[in-house]
Design goal:
This protein has 225 residues and is mainly beta. It has a single domain (38-222), classed as Jelly Rolls. The chain is built from no helices and 17 strands. The protein has strands spanning 3-4, 30-31, 35-39, 51-55, 57-61, 70-74, 81-85, 98-104, 111-118, 124-131, 138-145, 151-158, 164-172, 175-180, 183-188, 198-205, 212-222. The strands form three sheets. Strands 3, 5, 6, 8, 13, 14, 15 and 17 form an eight-stranded antiparallel sheet that branches. Strands 4-7-16-9-10-11-12 form a seven-stranded antiparallel sheet, with no helix packed on it. Strands 1-2 form a two-stranded antiparallel ribbon. Strand 9 (111-118) and strand 10 (124-131) form a beta hairpin. It is globular and about 40 Å long. Mean pLDDT is 86; it is low at 1-27.
Length: 225
């Protein structure tokens, strides 16, 4: 099975295995026969049928960013959460699903954000998470297969309020590698979910006040059936 690896000096983007509109490049191994999905939020909103999984908020366009950024926003109440989710659950562990996203956390205090995959149940997931409620000052890579006691890896990469590219590659049923800005930051080797998964973006405010998660693009790919 052939593998394509492409690197350029432009910003990191993945668009179905193509350097689309000269926006950037693939910084990951993508099999030439992979099935790919991408939403680049070109008009500042979803281009596909995302569903709300948590609904205490809304989404909006990030102003002043012509390439298209979406903002997920909570409401003002402490504990409010808002998320978007591809609920068709088309990503299956046996086909090695992987994902990359370019995102930004504009306010890094009293907030929880997640980006990755989640299943029909809340304890089936693979995602990057930052949660000040758990004392985080760095990104964590986390997964669970329904056990209720997830595997968690502290990446050691400090959170800040500028754009970053996060990615995980599903190498096998027993190993997922995590990357931030093209640098490997950890591995997940246990409690990897086997149930169908959907792409997932989440933000929660831990105080009275709106919190947001910005996303420029999110792409996922897996082996074809």
């Amino acid at each position: 099975m052939r593998v394509i690896e492409v690197r350029t000096n432009r910003k990191q983007y993945l668009y179905g295995g193509i350097d689309c509109l000269k926006h950037g490049a693939i910084n990951a191994r993508v099999e030439s026969a992979s099935a790919c999905f991408c939403d680049d939020f070109w008009q500042g909103g979803p281009n596909y049928s995302w569903a709300e999984r948590e609904s205490s908020g809304n989404y909006s366009t990030v102003p002043g960013r012509p390439s298209g950024w979406i903002s997920l926003n909570t409401n003002n109440n402490a504990g409010a959460a808002y998320s978007l989710y591809l609920d068709n659950l088309d990503f299956l562990a046996q086909y090695n699903p992987s994902a990359i996203a370019r995102m930004e956390v504009p306010t890094i205090t009293n907030v929880e954000v997640r980006m990755g995959f989640i299943g029909a149940a809340d304890d089936d997931f693979i995602y990057f998470i930052y949660n000040t409620g758990e004392g985080h000052s760095t990104w964590h890579l986390r997964c669970d297969n329904g056990s209720g006691s997830p595997t968690d890896v502290d990446t050691g990469v400090s959170i800040d309020s500028v754009p970053h590219t996060i990615m995980f590659e599903f190498y096998s049923q027993v190993r997922i590698d995590g990357y931030v800005d093209g640098n490997k930051v950890g591995e997940l080797t246990s409690k990897i979910p086997t149930n169908p998964l959907g792409l997932y973006m989440y933000v929660k405010t831990l105080e009275n006040g709106v919190k947001s998660l910005y996303c420029d693009m999110i792409t996922a790919w897996q082996d074809r059936y």
